[in-house]
Amino acid sequence: MSFAETHGSVLAFDLGLKRTGVASGELSIGIAHPLSVIQAGSSEERLTAIARLVAEWRPVLLVLGLPTHADGSEHEMTRVAKNFARKLESRFNLPVFLVDERHTSTAAESELHARGIHGKKNKALLDAVAAQLILQGFFDARLTA
């Protein structure tokens, strides 16, 4: 990972076709926090919502979860995520890092259950916590690189 910045805000996304989880963090601290969930039916609606977040948070980079099969092979959502990453880079002129997101939704669900959050509350937070885990993985990889 060759990103020279050592401080600045970061936004991360767990991309879904209907809901996209969002997390935030600070490079110098390396701790991710769930932020929100974007409800959007189209890529353009999603990008508009992200534009508002970018204007508010002024991130120095973006992180996007890269979905793959358990064995690491690609599937349709892998291609969707890669295309979306290119749209993010083009629209916001920011570096976009793709991070392996295998098992993050399962881990997010386990974390929420452990905290006693179930049902509709769980569904509302699940994608944001998955984005948090994606971003934390990015931060942790920077520390060991």
Describe this structure in words.
With 145 residues, the protein is α/β, with parallel strands linked by helices. The protein has a single domain (9-144), classed as Nucleotidyltransferase, domain 5. 48% of the residues lie in helices and 23% in strands. The chain has helices spanning 43-57, 76-92, 104-114, 119-144, and strands at residues 9-14, 19-26, 31-39, 61-66, 96-100. A five-stranded mixed sheet has the order 3-2-1-4-5, sandwiched between helices.
Topology (elements, then pairings):
Blueprint: E1 9-14, E2 19-26, E3 31-39, H1 43-57, E4 61-66, H2 76-92, E5 96-100, H3 104-114, H4 119-144
Parallel strand pairs: 1-4, 4-5
Antiparallel strand pairs: 1-2, 2-3
In short:
The protein has four helices and five strands; from the N terminus they run E-E-E-H-E-H-E-H-H. It is of the alpha/beta class. It has one domain (9-144): YqgF/RNase H-like domain (Nucleotidyltransferase, domain 5), CATH 3.30.420.140.
Overall structural class, as computed from helix and strand content, comes to alpha/beta
Topology as a string of helices (H) and strands (E): EEEHEHEHH
CATH topology: Nucleotidyltransferase, domain 5
Give the overall average pLDDT: 85
Low-pLDDT stretches: none
Number of helices: 4
The value of Rg in angstroms is: 14 Å
For the largest beta sheet, what order do the strands appear in spatially? 3-2-1-4-5
Largest sheet: 5 strands, mixed
Shape: globular
CATH hierarchy: architecture: 2-Layer Sandwich
State the helical fraction: 40-55%
Q: Which CATH C-level class is it?
A: Alpha Beta
Beta-strand residue fraction: 15-25%
Number of strands: 5
Tally of separate domains = 1
How far apart the termini lie comes to 7 Å
